[in-house]
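Lab notebook, entry 645. We have the chain sequence and a SMILES string for thymidine-5'-diphosphate, and the next step in the workflow is to get a structural model of the bound complex before anyone spends time on docking refinements. Request logged below.

Task: model protein plus thymidine-5'-diphosphate, output structure tokens.
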Amino acid sequence: MSLSGLGHWLSVPALAAAAAGAGDDPAARVRLAGAVLVLMVLPAVFLAPLAGLAAARLDGRLLLTAADALRFALVLLVPLVDLTPWTLAAAFLVALLALPWSAVADAAVPELVDEERLPRARRAALRAVYGTAPVAAVLYAVLAVIARTADLADLPLFAAAAVFLGAAVSVVLLRELPAGTAPRAAQWPPLLLFRGAPVPGGLFPAVAAAVLACAAIAAVAVGHAREMGGGDAGFGAILVGLTVGLAFGIFLGPRVLGPFSRRRLLALAVVAAALLLVVVALARDLVVAAFVTSFVGVAAGMAWSTAAGLAGAAADAAQDAAAAASARLRAVALVTGLVAVAALPPAAGALGDHELGSAYELAGTGAVLLIVAVLALAAGLVAFRRLDDRRGIPLLPDLRAALRGEVYTPPEQGAAEAAPRNRGVFIAFEGGEGAGKTTQARLAAIWLRDHGYDVVTTHEPGATKIGMRLRAMLLDKQNTGLSARAETLLYAADRADHVANVIRPALERGAIVVSDRYVDSSLAYQGYGRGQPVDEIARINAWATGGLVPDLTVLLEVPAETGLGRLASPADRMESEPRDFHERVREGFRELADADPDRYLVVDASLPQQEISRIVQDRIREILPDPVPAGTEDVTSTFPAITDV
Ligand SMILES: Nc1ncnc2c1ncn2[C@@H]1O[C@H](COP(=O)(O)OP(=O)(O)O)[C@@H](O)[C@H]1O
Ligand SMILES: Cc1cn([C@H]2C[C@H](O)[C@@H](COP(=O)(O)OP(=O)(O)O)O2)c(=O)[nH]c1=O
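Result returned:
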């Protein structure tokens, strides 16, 4: 897969440059390179379903070998024939052969690995197919430099042919190649634009704008590099910037700014790509252009992976629906890409070069990029308006808070709630079923009260009047089929009421609040247990609680089996979940604690009660407003009461 992918991505710039080389003037060169790109995108847009049919009918190994061997021959013939029509035909056929190839290869993956490793195998396959693009770009740039110094203009083409040959040989040498399940019939991308799995409004313009920015650069790069005094190597450098940036951005998208709204992130990434494109359009220096192009790639890549995440999440966890939603996004990308590479090179020629002022000359390629930047910017702003899920919350403070790793609460919402905080102490007990939370919370409260503290013990779910009704709904075994999202929101609703009516008033008074369960229970049960996105649940709960986080969370750790074994009363709706659910919950708690060791005390809950409570006391002592050395307690057997701080 990697070799075939590398061959494919290497043949794109090699063929584009070969075609461009036949042009007499700059505009013709850009048009010819654009024609190659159009011909290489066309099959994916219009012929994908046919390729799927062919793949289903032919023998897998034969097809893979033949497709690679044919591509070897096609690319090899380009420099030998050296006629533009043949170069263009070869470009089309090379891209056409890629379709049945990937249909067969994709279908073989589930046959080669077991169920459990399938998601990883699929990711690896994706990396092999798309991750080779930046590698190919680097390789192309290097080959273009060598080609120029050694006067071997066709070197990149020969290299691409050789890689295809290597791919064909490696398929022949494969010991085992399962017949594979019949490849799924692909949908026709243009149709997917208009119907298919629902995706959030605003997602299409955002994806289209991100793709447009990248496709525009790719479409005019041959000419744009030449305007700045670079040859094929300059073209290669821009492609390196673009593809490496894209790969990095796709990787970053789901990983940056955890507390920040994904929808806002998507729109911001698109706007950033558009603004950076302005710099690429106006750059007069190849190094600057290639460098800034890489940031366009990063922004567009982040937009792409964020959009894919949103489309998948909107599909409500159903695997098929998620696949259908991402197929629609791919269709938008393909069609936008095709339109861009078809329309922009001729547009660059038609616009021609313009004098701006006396010293600055804007080339046609730059002018096209500038227009695209404006379009992308407009699309980004539209996407922002339609996607924004934090309306009324100013963007900059929201972003600044996210950079600090927090969720922003606006002053009017947070002031009453957040400001007087810090007077009391908030301690939460967390853990799986029967870990001993209730027992330990009670023992800690007794100990604190003994020492004169004002202590409020409480629990979730169901500490308030409304909360008790929510608890009844949540734990009644009769309530089957409650959706995971509804469950999350009900727990969050209980928590919001709990914080507003019990916890905050107590903390403001200066009391010590000891709660049996808090936000982490939702992250562990609804997140890790039910498999919903943990960061989203964290966001919902940050909003529900106005950002209230415990000063200390005591995690009582016990194997699910042991904990469940301790329970006497008949199992409620949550307790009667299967064993592996509870194991995931335990694992989830563990990960949460590992991520923030300062806030957690993890205790082995299989120890005797007294011992646990001693460990807990030692830790609580450290965070009390007026820390008192452990010895004092034994000497005076009293503790200072803190009523004001
Ligand atoms: N450290 C311990 N070792 C053995 N049994 C315990 C321990 N802590 C609590 N238990 C018992 O386990 C049961 C469940 O404890 P509980 O505090 O209600 O757990 P949780 O609130 O976490 O569900 C109770 O019967 C309790 O007496
Ligand atoms: C607070 C909370 C509890 N739960 C579950 C865990 C428990 O199985 C159930 C009720 O909690 P609880 O009665 O406190 O259980 P235990 O006696 O084991 O401490 O609700 C969640 O799934 N999410 C949450 O946010």
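Notes for the group: The chain has three domains: 1-186, 189-406, 423-636. Worth checking against the assay data. The beta strands are 354-356, 360-362, 425-431, 455-459, 512-516, 552-557, 600-604.
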